[in-house]
Amino acid sequence: MQTAAILLIGNEILSGKIRDENASWLAVRLRALGVNLRRICVVPDEPDAIVDELLRIHATVDHVFTSGGVGPTHDDVTMDSVARAFGVEVIDHPELAALIRSFYGEGTLAGHLRMARVPDGTVLVAGGDIRWPVCQFQNVYILPGVPQLFRAKFDAIADRFREGAFYLRSVFLDADEGSVVDVLRDLEHRFPVAVGSYPRFGDPDHRIRVTIEARAAAPVDAAVDALVAALPPAIVLRVEAPVGQRLDEK
Amino acid sequence: MQTAAILLIGNEILSGKIRDENASWLAVRLRALGVNLRRICVVPDEPDAIVDELLRIHATVDHVFTSGGVGPTHDDVTMDSVARAFGVEVIDHPELAALIRSFYGEGTLAGHLRMARVPDGTVLVAGGDIRWPVCQFQNVYILPGVPQLFRAKFDAIADRFREGAFYLRSVFLDADEGSVVDVLRDLEHRFPVAVGSYPRFGDPDHRIRVTIEARAAAPVDAAVDALVAALPPAIVLRVEAPVGQRLDEK
Questions:
Q1: pLDDT digits over B59-92, tens only?
Q2: Does any CB of chain A come closer than 8 Å to the CB of residue B40?
Q3: Which chain A residues are closer than 8 Å to B194 by Cβ?
Q4: Same-domain status, A16 and A125
Q5: A61: containing domain
Q6: What is the pLDDT of residues B170-200, one digit of tens each?
Q7: What is the ipTM for the molecules in this complex?
Q8: Count of CB atoms within 10 A of residue A87's CB?
Q9: Set of chain A residues whose Cβ sits within 8 Å of the Cβ of B50
Q10: Which residues of A touch B20 (CB under 8 A)?
Q11: B168 pairs with which residues across the strands?
């Protein structure tokens, strides 16, 4: 199973000015593609912090996705930081520069051309109908922080990460967690499934949502049946119809 | 200025099942309190990942806030992981056990009492009107992942982190980033302010939001005036009234 990490370069998220939309979106997409997301980290727009985190994670997962810090402004330090982490120079990529010149024409400014600066060794990955290719340096995919662009760029290259979807069902309970903990633990021992337990407080709908998932439907269905059989009927509010298989269509 | 890091223990966030509500909320609160949030990290519910991240961050910031993994279920591994990171044992905290017994009375189960297990040396911090105190181990505040409880517990202890608010203004532009990058860079050189630039695509309201902030109003107001004066009037859509001072009242 492929693994991934997301690195958000985002003062605006750390300062609470902007709420992350990229990691939460990509987490769902990666799950649907069958990629195991191991880590999300938000660091400031500071080369030291970015280099440090890249050095730490890039060898521990198959793919790293960065978000942010790639515009033309002074706080856009991602390209330099990736280059420093891997010990290469930043170069003007001739193909990117040509794309920029052909797009802006006479109006091309130095600020626009700064977007052609990438770590030496960067591969341009095209796909879908995006105007600008995705910059890939080794196993690091350098994506923009603007949500619309982040999504369009990832979707353009998503197929290369596809492995197979997860199958997920939920059981909603009217119970407190302490009273069902043993039943849930037992379930993971008996079936090849992952069990999650998510309490709510003050929600009239339910008190716990139990999720059961695996790559195949059969063990999930069997575990759901076993769970319902093991609990007092009065606390089982409902069993959700299967979600998944086509999670990526959501 | 105090610094902080947030560590989310959250398989459910990495798998895209649940969207983070805690780090994004706490980022806003910390900013309003005058605390510099340096890092947000989401790791799986696995002791190795939690220990590793705690060891890495706890000495680099003043305060660490963890979210999640503290319920009674089998995937609640935070207390053990904090203990392991700091080389102490997990003990049954007599005061917590007494609170649990007095709350559940005759109905007290082993699952409930598991909530009294904390790293040896944990300090219970009470405040506000929360039923259960916050567990603090050295500079690590161990908070629950359920958003309602996370918020109530943080708010109960928020006063100890208060330092002073930020003052923030936004200027909305109809321009592309490349054409204003030099003006923005210049602004940070001339005034003691932090400048942010957030492009939108396909948004009829504006194309760039520029944020200018500092701990005092005067340099922010001066930088806003200087920015507006430096730009062609046609691209300045509007200047937002000051936000801040009482950001924490939001």
A1: 999 999 999 998 777 667 999 999 999 999 999 9
A2: yes
A3: 11
A4: yes
A5: 3-161
A6: 899 999 888 898 899 899 899 999 898 888 8
A7: 0.74
A8: 7
A9: none
A10: 20, 24
A11: B213, B243
Q: Does A201 touch chain B (CB under 8 A)?
A: yes
pLDDT in tens, chain A (250 residues): 899 999 999 999 999 999 999 999 999 999 988 899 999 999 999 999 999 999 999 999 999 999 999 877 766 799 999 999 999 999 999 989 998 999 899 999 888 888 899 999 999 887 766 778 999 999 999 999 999 999 999 998 898 887 666 677 889 999 988 889 889 989 989 999 989 888 888 778 889 989 898 878 889 999 999 999 999 999 999 998 765 443 333 3
Question: Of B160, B161, B118, which is closest to residue B142 (Cα–Cα)?
Answer: B118
Same domain, B93 and B171: no
Q: Which of B17, B38, B185 sits opposite A196 (nearest CB)?
A: B17
Residue A234 in contact with partner chain B when CB distance is under 8 A: no
Chain B residues within an 8 Å CB radius of A20:
20, 24
- What is the SS3 string spanning chain B? CCEEEEEEECHHHHCCCCCCCHHHHHHHHHHHHCCEEEEEEEECCCHHHHHHHHHHHCCCCCEEEEECCCCCCCCCCHHHHHHHHHCCCEEECHHHHHHHHHHHHHHCCHHHHHHHEEECCCEEECCCCCCCCEEEECCEEEECCCHHHHHHHHHHHHHHHCCCCCEEEEEEECCCHHHHHHHHHHHHHHCCCEEEEEECCCCCCCCEEEEEEECCHHHHHHHHHHHHHHCCHHHEEEECCCEECCHHHC
How many domains does chain B fold into? Answer: 2
Nearest CA in chain A to B68: A198
Mean pLDDT computed over B40-49: 96
Tell me: do A173 and A226 sit in the same domain. yes
For B148, the closest of A49, A194, A201 (CB atoms) is: A201
Q: Is B114 an interface residue toward A (CB < 8 Å)?
A: yes
- Are A185 and A105 within one domain? no
pLDDT at B113 over 70: yes
**Residue A104 and residue A62 share a domain:** yes
CATH number at A72 reads 3.40.980.10
Kindly state whether residues B31 and B103 are assigned to the same domain: yes
Domain boundary residue, one of A161, A192, A213: A161
Cβ contact, residue pair A181, B14, below 8 Å: no
Residues A156 and A175 placed together within one structural domain of the fold: no
- B1 token code pair: 């200025």
Average pLDDT value for residue range B128-143: 88
Residue of A nearest to B107 (CA): A179
Determine if the pTM surpasses 0.95.
no
What CATH number corresponds to the domain at position B245?
A: 3.30.70.2860
A80 interfacial to chain B (CB closer than 8 Å): no
